Amino acid sequence: MAAALVLRTWSRAAGQLICVRYFQTCGNVHVLKPKYVCFFGYPPFKYSHPYQWLKTTAALQGQIVQFKLSDIGEGIREVTVKEWYVKEGDTVSQFDSICEVQSDKASVTITSRYDGVIKKLYYNLDDTAYVGKPLVDIETEALKDSEEDVVETPAVSHDEHTHQEIKGQKTLATPAVRRLAMENNIKLSEVIGSGKDGRILKEDILNYLEKQTGAILPPSPKAEIMPPPPKPKDRTIPIPISKPPVFIGKDRTEPVKGFHKAMVKTMSAALKIPHFGYCDEVDLTELVKLREELKPIAFARGIKLSFMPFFLKAASLGLLQFPILNASVDENCQNITYKASHNIGIAMDTEQGLIVPNVKNVQIRSIFEIATELNRLQKLGSAGQLSTNDLIGGTFTLSNIGSIGGTYAKPVILPPEVAIGALGTIKALPRFNEKGEVCKAQIMNVEKGERKPVLLNVYYAPRTMLNSVCLSLHNSTSQKQLKVATRFSDISPDRPGHL
Amino acid sequence: MLIPFSMKNCFQLLCNLKVPAAGFKNTVKSGLILQSISNNVYHNLAVEDWIHDHMNLEGKPVLFLWRNSPTVVIGRHQNPWQECNLNLMREEGVKLARRRSGGGTVYHDMGNINLTFFTTKKKYDRMENLKLVVRALKAVHPHLDVQATERFDLLVDGQFKISGTASKIGRNAAYHHCTLLCGTDRTFLSSLLKSPYQGIRSNATASTPALVKNLMEKDPTLTCEVVINAVATEYATSHQIDNHIHLINPTDETVFPGINSKAIELQTWEWIYGKTPKFSVDTSFTVLHEQSHVEIKVFIDVKNGRIEVCNIEAPDHWLPLEICDQLNSSLIGSKFSPIEMTVLTSILHRTHPGDDELHSKWNILCEKIKGIM
């Protein structure tokens, strides 16, 4: 049985999607495989292939131009170099940012005047650079008859467009488009621009490429781009040619950094724990109704009431019956500690990633108190202000994959705990009631993972534990008990034996 | 004169200003005065970016007026740990922003006005702008002793700073912005702009502390509204344009296409903290252990806001060396931020279960380290 478990941590602040996949096949555990996608690039700098660049200028060698620091204004003679946006060997286009310098409270972005490859940087960070002295050396493309660069464009327009003089004709294209054309050996004069004023856009280059590739492939009677209208007698099915799409995106490798690294280590340790999973569905129709009734009452007291407080309380009731599931084991599984408090953790998605704060002592809290505490943790979690105390001391965890829309999940136990529950989304599904009629029911899938060696001799416990959790959720008697509990919460929150 | 502005008019006006190289509409006046309806520093900074990147300022300079809810704004190349009290800011809900212009750290609240003068690079002249502001203030309060200094500050009575300056110069355009203190909470300002962090070594631009004063302390009638109108009037007179302040909404994509992504970038951790020039922290703290004090030394190098080198040295009898090494290696690559420290601590707890004494020592150590982040 191969079960794929996806644990996604969102790092919204940095715009990074970090996707960590765990594969569990037949009880064996594969090492995780992190995969990193996308990044909000700053500076917006694209690297192209220098070798391709040089290929197009096979005949003539490029010339090295000294790009001097131009006059900044106000009689400024010297500046401090604060940040380099390029390094030696990078390809730059005209108007790309080269570096940031500072002079007397003015921050100046120096942009390139040429297209080419950076050959030398004349200054290090925090050095003083002088106006009129060389800043960088750029190896420009040699001037060819068919493609000419206008090296000095008068600074009139704010537009990022450069003009190419080609046999008296002006071709408008952005530096990115020109680079794309250069990389694919396309002469801009041969491309028809579809943009404003005959501007050549990226789509025009891609269309041009498609046409070119089509011309090279030998035409065959069956190979047609557009399938002909189907003739009733003719049974031949035309086979369309799929042209390889031109894609210039590049892979990006990054080291695993920060607490994600530590998290990865913990999860690897966690996966070494033999897992025993059990899954069932729970009918929550009554709970949904109850929550609808209680929501406005909670709101009047400034509490947002989700389903989680009910699940936490139900889990605690189940843990009272089966305290082994609230235990902790040491590293080598030699000692087991039955924890007295039910500190139930809830997986929370924050800017820092997946964090699991816990609600302390759920066993003595009422639904409203649990809801208040959850609100507090959620607020702190999104502000990045959770304290260490909120994050340590957990004894059992509930993972709410339903909140992001999933229905099935195989949760991973967080050591030193021995069990974890995963709750799916509540969905309206048709079910049979006692009379055998089809009715609408609110169904949720619950999965529980447990540590195998600990519970070998109580293998029946998971089922009964789950049943007790489920029972306490949709048993009408329990509903009334929960209802009573919430009403009494203000009067006597800490009465022993109180729900 | 504040005239409410219809969206269509504003859009058309800005379209006219976004002049292509070819044409030129003679109906456009040679200048524009804008005021933001938002108090969100990130949205307002994004407006500056947008105007700087997209508007053709040839012959048409722009004045932008804005105010922010409590925020500390640091310069492009500054170090927030060196410049302000980040712990206090987190407690009080004061935001932190990094602007794109150079210069030092300032505190904004609703009692402070920000003025941005947009011109072409050729017309960039800070002293001219400051003289304009001085004229505006003197028009409202003729006997006010206010003057611009060589450092482009505005001083009142020859010693109290009421305005600081910074600017950004690009390829074709430039902007010069300055603050103007009308009625800011001065006590709060000085407590926020005082860094409690010790042992920071850095080449980041340092701020020059100064004695400040509010204009309203000199003359209670110099409220923000009065000063805004005075500056706008003076700008209109100097540039021979209508004295109309156009209200703009910095989140409106139809008027400013692409502005929201600029605002988002300004709020990323990578921009605010990650752009801090490389620095190192060399400090120590003491911890109470069995009636004696244990000294723990901390050497951390931070690059791009992340810990590059980490050496936390604790005596072996208090914390075993290999545990210390584990902590050090876990911290490398982490953001220099308290929440990352908190999460790391909780993860370390999980990898060493059951050892309560170790856990409590770790907690103490981590709380101390968080105190320097």
Automatic annotation (TrEMBL), chain A:
It comes from Bos mutus (wild yak). This is Dihydrolipoamide acetyltransferase component of pyruvate dehydrogenase complex. One of its GO terms (molecular function) is dihydrolipoamide branched chain acyltransferase activity. Its main location: mitochondrion. Belongs to the 2-oxoacid dehydrogenase family. InterPro entries: 2-oxoA_DH_lipoyl-BS, 2-oxoacid_DH_actylTfrase, 2-oxoacid_DH_E2_comp, Biotin_lipoyl, CAT-like_dom_sf, E3-bd_dom_sf, PSBD, Single_hybrid_motif. It comes from the Eukaryota. Its cofactor is (R)-lipoate. It catalyses: N(6)-[(R)-dihydrolipoyl]-L-lysyl-[protein] + 2-methylpropanoyl-CoA = N(6)-[(R)-S(8)-2-methylpropanoyldihydrolipoyl]-L-lysyl-[protein] + CoA. Residues 146-171, 218-238 are annotated as: Disordered. Residues 218-230 have a biased composition (Pro residues). It is found in: Mitochondrion matrix. Keywords: Acyltransferase, Lipoyl, Mitochondrion, Transferase, Transit peptide. Pfam families: 2-oxoacid_dh, Biotin_lipoyl, E3_binding. Residues 64-139 form the Lipoyl-binding domain. Residues 157-168 have a biased composition (Basic and acidic residues). It is an enzyme of class 2 (transferase). GO terms for cellular component: cytosol; mitochondrial matrix. Residues 172-209 form the Peripheral subunit-binding (PSBD) domain. PROSITE patterns: BIOTINYL_LIPOYL, LIPOYL, PSBD. Its EC number is 2.3.1.-.
From TrEMBL, chain B:
It is an enzyme of class 2 (transferase). InterPro entries: aa-tRNA-synth_II/BPL/LPL, BPL_LPL_catalytic, LipoylTrfase_LipoateP_Ligase. SUPFAM superfamilies: Class II aaRS and biotin synthetases. Its EC number is 2.3.1.200. This is Lipoyl amidotransferase LIPT1, mitochondrial. It comes from the Eukaryota. It catalyses: (R)-lipoyl-5'-AMP + L-lysyl-[lipoyl-carrier protein] = N(6)-[(R)-lipoyl]-L-lysyl-[lipoyl-carrier protein] + AMP + 2 H(+); N(6)-[(R)-lipoyl]-L-lysyl-[glycine-cleavage complex H protein] + L-lysyl-[lipoyl-carrier protein] = L-lysyl-[glycine-cleavage complex H protein] + N(6)-[(R)-lipoyl]-L-lysyl-[lipoyl-carrier protein]. Lipoyl amidotransferase that catalyzes the transfer of lipoyl moieties from lipoyl-protein H of the glycine cleavage system (lipoyl-GCSH) to E2 subunits of the pyruvate dehydrogenase complex (PDCE2). Unable to catalyze the transfer of octanoyl from octanoyl-GCSH to PDCE2. In vitro, it is also able to catalyze the transfer of the lipoyl group from lipoyl-AMP to the specific lysine residue of lipoyl domains of lipoate-dependent enzymes but this reaction may not be physiologically relevant.
